[in-house]
Amino acid sequence: MPRMLVTGGAGFIGSNFVHYTVRNHPEYEVRVLDALTYAGDRTALSPVASQVEFVHGDICDADLVNRLAAGTDLIVHFAAESHVDNSLHDPGPFLRSNIIGTYTLLEALRRHGGRFHHISTDEVFGDLPLGSTEQFTEDRAYDPSSPYSATKASSDMLVRAWARSFGIAATISNCANNYGPFQHVEKFIPRQITNILCGMRPKLYGAGENVREWTHVDDHNAAVHLILSMGKVGETYLIGSGDERSNKQIMRLILELTGQDPTAYDHVPDRPGHDLRYSNDSSKIRTELGWQPVYGDFRAGLAATVDWYRGSEWWWKPQKEATEARYQLLGR
Question: Which of 148, 205, 237, 265 is the catalytic position?
Fold first, then answer.
């Protein structure tokens, strides 16, 4: 039975990946490594707790990472600091986790061997003009806008360098914005949903014209498993549903799905350097590996997500007060 180590497996995408793996790929023996920072929550793994091993630890802890890598066939690397606003307020944790943490994992792979898959973001490419049909491709030059995306771009480059210089068997995926269960309430979609559920008015940055491509977390994780089973070592794959929406459109749809007036939201100051538009050309993973998103209907996927948050106050309510306090400090 191949032994898989999932870093950041108590975070949003990582915990959903663990659920997806246990449900659909029982051939793996799964171990989770997570530091349980504010964005990691062990309760997100409670439905599969008896089927995985959990290790509380830091990917920057070289001794721990080396011990774990020695008994691992495959590392799937989700662990990262990932919130743009937080990176603008304090970039330090992003350099430590996203750069030093990735370096620590790669050095352990050099010593012990095994396969490595690195989860990244389309934000490393910068942004695209509003109203254009231009898309990101795997060979596009990097042009990150925020400390967050700059550190993710750095980690991507480390993976490529270690693959070329030291022969690490690695693949990379850059995904569009994700949504779905267990996403921290600091993020755009769950923040608006939970504001409404708490009787608070949701918040829209600036005019809300910025456009994102939204991919359900289960579709993302299905794509990752295709890369693990069929992807070519050394390759990068872009993942995206093809469904682009402005933040204003998302806001109005959330209000509609929760039975509210679609105009019942407040505008707040835009974030500095806010990227205009993201869009991935995912034809490579679709044609070479046969990936297709199950949640092609974004409205249906968003409705299911609203229902999940409505029924899961036990999970998100403890995060809410501290999250909104941080946003108040940022003026957003």
Answer: 148
